[in-house]
Every structure is written in structure tokens, then in C-alpha cells.
């Protein structure tokens, strides 16, 4: 119970930060101009060719069609191995990402940055669907690796790679010009809040299903 309350306290704090940021974005976006423009100009620079080629390719990893395919394949592998709670956790977070993005974009209705876009995107800017998806989906995999992989070095390496992946995806959305830094920051905070809230529930379900022999 204490562990659950600690996770939920962290989730509540992260959600509060997200709501404060969202309030500023909705009603006082000019207050974030300095923060956003500084990071945008620093990250994008003069758009070097190699970096542009890298980010314009890597940003598509979280495109809807692509992420549905590779998450679906992972869920199939998990189901084959009888890791049913893991499959539910991963797939559920992908669906939840879509629902949250659809709802919140229409609440905040923030226009996309008025700078050169290197990829085509439609709709509103906040929150960033790619950033939320990378935090929730890759974050789910980080949790699973911590539970399933016994070899410590391999576990840390894979978790580090996934963390790096989140960072790269998030940075790519700013670099290609379709999101403000505050968009991706808010999305990561929201994703962290969701994971902190979900983890005790998922972990309990996983324990119960393993204890009763419903899964491995």
C-alpha cells in the first residue's frame, strides 16, 4: 500500500506540473516564448545536413501506422510467451496515448510553431503525440525489462538505449519544427504521471496472474 501511495503521489505531482504548464500554454503562451525560442534555435542551429537527415528519419518511428505495427508485433511475441499482463500494459498505453492526444489537443488548441517544418503535420501542437507515445510505450518497455531481464548489465544497457530513444524522439519533434520545446516537455511529464499511476495496478495484476497460473 505504501509503495502504491508513493507512486500515486509522484503521479499527482507530475500531473499538477502538466496542468500548470497547460494553463500557461492555453492562456499565457507568450510567457514561454523565451524558453521555447532559445531551445529551438540552439537545437536546430543552421539545420546541418547530416542532423536534418537523421532527425527527419528517426521522428517517423512514432508515426501512427509504424508504431501500431511494431507494438502489435511485440504484443504478439508477449502473447506467445504468455506474458499477458505485459501485452495488455503495452497495448493499453498505445491506445491511451491516442485518446489523450485527441482529447487534449482539442482542449488546448495550440497552433504549431511558425517556423520551417521539415516534415508535414496537421492539427494542434500541444501535447506532442510522438513525445507522449515514446514516453508511455518505451517507458512501458523499460519497466518490463527491469522485471524480466535478470542480467544486470544487459538490463541497464537496454534500459539506457530506450531512455536515449525517448530523448532522441522528443528532440526530433523540436528539430523538425512541428512542436515547441514546451510541447514535448509537457508530454513527457504527462507520460511520467500516467506511468507512475499505472505501475502499481499493472504490477499487482501481473503478480496475481502469475500466482494463479494465468500467465508466465
Which characteristics define this entry?
single chain; 8 helices; globular; mainly alpha; 216 residues
Structural overview:
This is Phosphatase PAP2 family protein. Residues 87-199 form the Phosphatidic acid phosphatase type 2/haloperoxidase domain. Pfam families: PAP2 (PF01569). It comes from Streptococcus lactarius. Keywords: Membrane, Transmembrane, Transmembrane helix. With 216 residues, the protein is mainly alpha-helical. It has one domain. Helices cover 76% and strands 0% of the residues. The protein is built from 8 helices and no strands. It has helices at residues 2-27, 33-44, 49-58, 64-80, 84-108, 129-148, 152-175, 181-211. The longest helix is centred in the last third of the chain and has 31 residues, at 181-211. The radius of gyration is 18 Å and the shape is globular. The relative contact order is 0.17. The mean pLDDT is 95.
Main β sheet profile: none
The number of distinct helices, counting runs of at least 4 residues, comes to 8
Strand content: under 5%
Provide the number of structural domains. Answer: 1
Classify the helix fraction into a percent range.
Answer: over 70%
Low-confidence stretches: none
Please tell me the overall pLDDT. 95
> What series of H and E elements makes up the topology?
HHHHHHHH
Keywords: Membrane, Transmembrane, Transmembrane helix
InterPro entries: PAP2/HPO, PAP2/HPO_sf
Pfam families: PAP2 (PF01569)
Protein name: Phosphatase PAP2 family protein
Amino acid at each position: 500500500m505504501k509503495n502504491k501511495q508513493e507512486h500515486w503521489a509522484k503521479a499527482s505531482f507530475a500531473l499538477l506540473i502538466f496542468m500548470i504548464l497547460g494553463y500557461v500554454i492555453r492562456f499565457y503562451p507568450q510567457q514561454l516564448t523565451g524558453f521555447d525560442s532559445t531551445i529551438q534555435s540552439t537545437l536546430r542551429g543552421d539545420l546541418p545536413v547530416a542532423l536534418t537527415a537523421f532527425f527527419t528519419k528517426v521522428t517517423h518511428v512514432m508515426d501512427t501506422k509504424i508504431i501500431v505495427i511494431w507494438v502489435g508485433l511485440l504484443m504478439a511475441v508477449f502473447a506467445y510467451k504468455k506474458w499477458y499482463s505485459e501485452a495488455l500494459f503495452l497495448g493499453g498505453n498505445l491506445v491511451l496515448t491516442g485518446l489523450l492526444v485527441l482529447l487534449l489537443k482539442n482542449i488546448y488548441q495550440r497552433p504549431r510553431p511558425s517556423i520551417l517544418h521539415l516534415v508535414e503535420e496537421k492539427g494542434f501542437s500541444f501535447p506532442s503525440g510522438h513525445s507522449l507515445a515514446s514516453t508511455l510505450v518505451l517507458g512501458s518497455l523499460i519497466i518490463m525489462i527491469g522485471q524480466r531481464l535478470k542480467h544486470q548489465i544487459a538490463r541497464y544497457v537496454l534500459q539506457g538505449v530506450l531512455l536515449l530513444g525517448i530523448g532522441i524522439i522528443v528532440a526530433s519533434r523540436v528539430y523538425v519544427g512541428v512542436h515547441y520545446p514546451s510541447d514535448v516537455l509537457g508530454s513527457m511529464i504527462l507520460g511520467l504521471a500516467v506511468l507512475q499511476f499505472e505501475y502499481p495496478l499493472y504490477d499487482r495484476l501481473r503478480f496475481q496472474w502469475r500466482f494463479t497460473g494465468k500467465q508466465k
